[in-house]
Q: What sequence folds into this?
């Protein structure tokens, strides 16, 4: 191919100009791909930092420091009358037994200040375990038992390395003398980290060593149960009507626009609606999982409706035409053919909506579920908390031990969310049909 002449001289051949243009476009495409890859790696890096921080801060909350003490179950302290009366056994001074065990272990401690610091090594709630032991088997009265008692949260932080031993004494919650006592117990094999069963079996507590997620977990379960029982049938029925039966006019268009807009409304707005409607108008109890479930139902309904309509649209029109062609009614077409084929997509959208509801805290704060709840709820009408709200409360606590429990609760919540999304993926893979 020859050059084309111009008054300013010959120009590049056409083939060369095309090749140069292609090279430039390919170079820009590679740059764009590299930028996309860099953005992906950047996001994954932040996600990795997030998870590593959670695991580093939260893994230690699943174990708890315990101290082995030889506790003499003195009948004169537990049951001076010897009648084994349940009320006397329930109200006995079990803290005195713990103090006596500590005195026998460190007989040289006599100063009042030192005695208080010695008693502070063991959790104030450690007597509950001795009380439970005696109530389960009164025959242990009069014996000396070696018991692993719950340590105070400050001792727990020391054993886990969360307290700087080398720092000034005024800057930490444990004195040098207390650290020496803990080291002496540790040297005798009387300090160990054991499974923190309170974290999984108890409710909230002002003592970090006793605080657990069970009450919040049960509250979340009741809320999700109410949400599922209301949002799934209402969402599916609405989607079926709008997609299969509703006439195409401006009213249905208006409804569809509002449903799409509601899916983007901030969750705290639904909390304000629940506060005004369910509590102030209908007088339902505050902090109840029933109210929380109603609020979350309002929040998840648009998501379920949109996902259900998308699943119905994915069913080929030939299925409907074939069923109508053999004499089926419109209702039979929907119930016997369209709905079963669209159900996997509907279930997937419902589970994703429920997972979103599980992680919401803003609407629950508006209806009073931020209250300090210790007891485990027995019904959707009992006062309760929820996992996201429990995390919010612990994150606002000043004690260092609550920091690891906050991270551990976040890990548990993330595990539930991953499980629910995993179930949604499995349902889609198992039942989804490609047309």
A:
């Amino acid at each position: 191919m020859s050059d084309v002449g111009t008054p300013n001289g010959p120009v590049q051949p056409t083939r060369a100009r095309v090749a140069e243009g292609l090279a430039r476009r390919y170079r820009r495409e590679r740059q764009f791909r590299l930028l996309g890859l860099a953005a992906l790696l950047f996001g994954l890096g932040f996600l990795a930092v997030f998870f590593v921080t959670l695991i580093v801060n939260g893994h230690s909350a699943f174990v708890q420091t315990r101290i082995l003490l030889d506790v003499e179950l003195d009948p004169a302290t537990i049951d001076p009358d010897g009648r084994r009366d349940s009320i006397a056994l329930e109200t006995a001074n079990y803290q005195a037994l713990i103090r006596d065990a500590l005195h026998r272990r460190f007989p040289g401690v006599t100063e009042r200040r030192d005695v208080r610091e010695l008693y502070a090594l063991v959790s104030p709630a450690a007597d509950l375990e001795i009380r439970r032991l005696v109530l389960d088997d009164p025959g242990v009265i009069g014996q000396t038992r070696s018991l692993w008692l719950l340590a105070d949260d400050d001792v727990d932080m020391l054993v886990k390395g969360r307290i700087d031993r080398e720092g000034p004494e005024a800057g930490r919650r444990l004195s040098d003398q207390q650290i020496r006592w803990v080291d002496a117990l540790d040297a005798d094999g009387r300090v160990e980290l054991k499974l923190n069963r309170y974290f999984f079996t108890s409710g909230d507590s002002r003592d970090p060593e006793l605080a657990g997620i069970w009450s919040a977990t049960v509250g979340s379960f009741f809320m999700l149960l109410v949400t599922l029982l209301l949002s799934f049938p209402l969402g599916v029925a609405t989607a079926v009507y709008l997609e299969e039966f509703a006439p195409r006019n401006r009213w249905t268009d208006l409804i569809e626009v509002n449903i799409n807009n509601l899916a983007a409304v901030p969750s705290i707005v639904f909390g304000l609606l629940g506060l005004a409607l369910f509590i102030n108008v209908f007088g339902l109890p505050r902090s109840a999982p029933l109210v929380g479930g109603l609020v979350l139902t309002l929040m998840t309904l648009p998501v379920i409706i949109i996902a259900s309509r998308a699943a119905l649209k994915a069913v080929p029109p030939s299925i409907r035409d074939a069923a109508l062609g053999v004499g089926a009614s419109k209702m039979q077409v929907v119930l016997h053919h369209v709905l079963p084929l669209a159900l996997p997509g509907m279930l997937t959208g419902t589970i994703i909506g429920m997972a979103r509801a599980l992680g919401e805290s803003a609407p629950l704060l508006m209806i009073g579920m931020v209250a300090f709840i210790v007891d485990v709820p027995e019904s959707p009408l009992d006062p309760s908390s929820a996992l996201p709200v429990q995390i919010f409360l612990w994150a606002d606590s000043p004690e260092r031990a609550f920091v690891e429990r906050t991270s551990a609760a976040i890990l548990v919540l993330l595990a539930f969310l991953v499980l629910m999304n995993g179930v949604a993926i499995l349902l889609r893979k198992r039942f989804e049909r490609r047309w």
